[in-house]
């Protein structure tokens, strides 16, 4: 693809997910071990343990899949268009993994609470039940739309960011520049002037998977995105530095520009 020709900012080291592979493999083995243990409980006449084996297996495998997708694999999604502007979405696969593993944890604690209650261990049932209810708030917030797959949208007015748990908007005239940084993973900072009007909102207080930046800016964690980090960087940099081209945002012309890698100087 032409976008593969976009230069990588000097601030980012070359992409290499090899150092994360051992952790992914170990987590996968934990998942397989939990699966074997679950059927082992059936073999010794304790079929009630099967559900925990299956849930823990799924839990570990989802963590492994999340790690592989966000740290090892190089994203290859595409920029899209909405009624508002040109959109770069957060990774849908990573979001599904995150919600799935939280649902697994919720089920484990709630089922344990029921089993302890049926076994007469009331204290443990209360503790596990309370933790389970706390964890249940996560999928409940997903259903309510407070936690959701995010996106960064470039419109004629400015840049809208909907993170997993926050929203932010800054107009084009607010931006001072675009900077690439590396904090264990590639990030793009679209830095704004200090005295601008900044629309921001932290949508979730307890489950802060991500949060509003401490200063006025659009902060994009490229590991969470569905497209290559270079696309995120050059897309934002191009439209910050080329106001005359912003009229094409939200149209096929912007998509064609990205596909042709007509973003870098």
From the N-terminal CA to the C-terminal CA, the straight-line distance is 18 Å
| Elements, N to C (H/E) | HHEEHHEEEEEEEHH
Morphology: elongated
How large a portion of the residues is in β-strands, by DSSP E? 15-25%
- CA radius of gyration is 22 Å
**Structural class assignment:** alpha+beta
Indicate the low-confidence ranges by residue numbers: none
Count of DSSP helices?
6
Query: How many beta-strand elements?
Result: 9
Considering DSSP H and I runs of 4 or more, what fraction of the residues is helical? 40-55%
Which whole number gives the mean pLDDT? 93
Q: Provide the spatial order of strands within the biggest beta sheet.
A: 1-2-3-4-5-8
- The total number of structural domains is 2
Largest sheet: 6 strands, antiparallel
Task: Give a concise summary.
This protein is of the alpha+beta class. The chain has helices at residues 21-43, 49-72, 92-118, 122-144, 229-241, 252-259; strands at residues 80-81, 86-89, 151-154, 158-162, 166-171, 175-182, 186-192, 199-202, 217-221.
Question: What brief labels describe this structure?
Answer:
9 strands; elongated; three-stranded antiparallel beta sheet; six-stranded antiparallel beta sheet; 2 domains; alpha+beta; 265 residues; 6 helices
Secondary structure layout plus pairing:
Layout: H1 21-43, H2 49-72, E1 80-81, E2 86-89, H3 92-118, H4 122-144, E3 151-154, E4 158-162, E5 166-171, E6 175-182, E7 186-192, E8 199-202, E9 217-221, H5 229-241, H6 252-259
Antiparallel strand pairs: 1-2, 2-3, 3-4, 4-5, 5-8, 6-7, 7-9
Helix pairs in contact: 1-2, 2-3, 3-4
């Amino acid at each position: 693809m032409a976008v593969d020709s976009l230069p990588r900012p000097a601030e980012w080291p070359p992409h290499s997910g090899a150092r994360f592979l051992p952790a992914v493999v170990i987590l996968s083995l934990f998942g397989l071990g939990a699966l074997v243990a679950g059927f082992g409980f059936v073999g010794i006449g304790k079929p009630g343990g099967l559900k925990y084996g299956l849930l823990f297996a799924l839990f570990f495998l989802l963590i492994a899949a999340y790690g592989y997708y966000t740290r090892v694999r190089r994203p290859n999604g595409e920029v899209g268009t909405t009624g508002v502007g040109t959109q770069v979405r957060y990774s849908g696969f990573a979001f599904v993994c995150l919600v799935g593993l939280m649902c697994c944890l919720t089920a484990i604690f709630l089922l344990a609470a029921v089993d302890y209650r049926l076994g007469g261990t009331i204290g443990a049932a209360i503790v596990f039940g309370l933790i389970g209810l706390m964890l249940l708030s996560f999928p409940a917030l997903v259903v309510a739309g407070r936690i959701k797959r995010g996106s960064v949208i470039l419109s004629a007015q400015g840049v809208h960011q909907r993170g997993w748990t926050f929203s932010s908007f800054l107009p084009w005239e607010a931006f001072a520049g675009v900077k690439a940084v590396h904090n264990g993973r590639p990030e793009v900072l679209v830095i704004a002037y200090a005295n601008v009007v900044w629309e921001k909102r932290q949508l979730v207080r307890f489950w802060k998977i991500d949060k509003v930046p401490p200063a006025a800016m659009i902060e994009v964690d490229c590991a969470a995105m569905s497209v290559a980090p270079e696309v995120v960087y050059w897309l934002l940099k191009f439209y910050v530095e080329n106001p005359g081209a912003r009229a094409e945002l939200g149209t096929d012309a912007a998509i064609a520009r990205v596909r042709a890698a007509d973003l870098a100087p």
